[in-house]
Design a protein that fits this description.
4-stranded antiparallel sheet; alpha+beta; 6-stranded mixed sheet
Length: 462
Amino acid sequence: MQNSLEYISQHKDRFISELIDLLKIPSVSADPAFAQDVLDTADAVKKALENAGCDIVEIHETDGFPIVYGEKILDSKLPTVLVYGHYDVQPADPLELWDSPPYEPVIKTTELHPEGAIFARGACDDKGQMYMHVKALEFMTKTDQLPCNVKFMIEGEEEIGSNNLAIYVAKNKEKLANDIILISDTGMIANDVPSITTGLRGLSYVEVEVTGPNRDLHSGLYGGAVANPINILTKMIASLHDENNHITIPGFYDKVEELSREERDEMAKAPFILEDYQNALEIESVYGEKGYTTNERNSIRPTLDVNGIWGGYIGGGAKTVIASQAFAKISMRLVPHQDWEEITELFKKHFESIAPTGVKVKVTPHHGGQGYVTPIDTVGYKAASKAYETTFEKKPIPQRSGGSIPIVSLFERELQSKTILMGFGLDSDAIHSPNEHFGLWNYLKGIETIPYFYKYFTAMSS
């Protein structure tokens, strides 16, 4: 019987060509200018699922962008795997920092990807990783090796907070019923160091606005006499961390789990060379909360970062004004047990309380989600671990991620299912940044590995 590696070898060029076609569509959910492109991508995903062997594929409308649902049910007595992914992508800005146009995919070799990588927005996050599952299904159906039932739920709003997904899931619990949820929207340590993400941070995302005078003012006539919103905003933001980079919001750490020394030592076994990390980012040193390592700071500790800040005159030349308003977007990455809505309220209360007289402050929550930890003693994790071990010939390392996938905790609450995060990207793939890319080796390795998860999960579940 043909194995996945043999099938991939026969169809490699087509698999790559199909992904390139998908990446050409600028499915930016955040920008209304790309609305039709997002809808076109949903149609493309639907056709891909049909061609891969799903018996039923439907486009379900929401108040935003649609969700593509597909299924192939062999027998109700068999286990069911629900695959989640998203077909929307981040905006490509700033375009001038791309070495090649973000929606004109090109294959280039790099030091980490000597066999080539596809450079395009969405290559790794998440079109490339989502499409691995489509092609894995194709292999299993075309060779009659699908061992269990499979369902797909591919959404178009992940990059803007999955605003309508919770409603859809709540209304379709029976349709989405499953034994395990499988997601590839994370990464692994290195191509020769496979890993499985076992923890995700939560997220609280807000926008703040500071308003002073009723109009922009001449900085000579009014400077020093009225509050400057930009000056005030930067001072307020600076006060959100102390000298040890500890977040100063009262109550922020009340529910933060302190990992044991043993757990931290286990995490430290993952290969990490600080000098290589700094060189890759072209920085002289790392920076963060005192008392924690770099890998701990970006995974098991909460953070607060300014994602954007603006106000006043930023054009060419000089314009001496005191701006009427100043704005910033702020994200807080949260660890398990921190409730994102509670943290958002704590931030709002604190930020408003530290505003000096002479300005008005407005805090607008955008979106958020809970953190998540999956145990490593479940059938799902063991099946994933064995699948990696089969294709990588070494046991994967359990790893907590600094990123957030808010819908994972939603799935557990609504569908009573655990999620397995089988990521094949690398930290260096520049997701959300210019020159995003996904290694061809990683893409094809995912297609090779995923069918083994189905095989082992079905066997272990019987």
